[in-house]
UniProtKB/TrEMBL annotation:
Alphabetical keyword list: Signal
Taxonomic superkingdom: Bacteria
Organism: Belliella alkalica
Pfam families, sorted: DUF4783 (PF16022)
Signal peptide coordinates: 1-23
UniProt-recorded name of the protein: DUF4783 domain-containing protein
């Protein structure tokens, strides 16, 4: 029994580490979704790539991470969030993910399309579209 204790401890430790790596992307998604629901450009920008493609109601451009945060902050000020919910989640291979959601502000609805990829087990947003319905 004494010889089995180190083996059991090792298996439990490895099992908990694998649970953490599976749960980490889920946690990131929850922070991203909460930042959209709460209108927090700062929390959302934590997940931006260094270069981010933005399309806000037809105004398109490529921005640095800091510039993109300012653009999103301005959007949240003009259109404060009432609600945000995910309506679709998709995958392309192991590393590319996209989410489609509905953002509501002042009685108006917007479709949000987030595109990102996993890099070193972290989700990084490289494209964000916000289009009024």
């Amino acid at each position: 029994m004494k010889k089995l204790l180190p083996v059991i401890f090792c298996l439990l430790t490895l099992g908990s580490l694998s649970l953490f790596t599976v749960a980490a992307p889920f946690y990131e998604n929850e922070v991203i979704f909460a930042s959209l629901k709460n209108g927090s450009s700062k929390d959302l920008a934590r997940f931006f790539e260094n270069g981010v493609e933005l399309n806000i109601n037809g105004n398109q451009g490529e921005y640095s991470k800091n510039q993109a945060e300012l653009v999103i902050r301005d959007f949240f000020k003009k259109y404060p969030p009432e609600n945000f919910e995910i309506i679709h989640e998709g995958f392309s291979g192991d590393q590319i993910k996209h989410y489609i959601g509905t953002y509501t502000s002042m009685g108006e609805s917007y479709r949000i399309l987030l595109k990102g990829k996993l890099q070193e087990e972290e989700f990084r947003i490289y494209s964000l579209e916000i289009i009024k319905y």
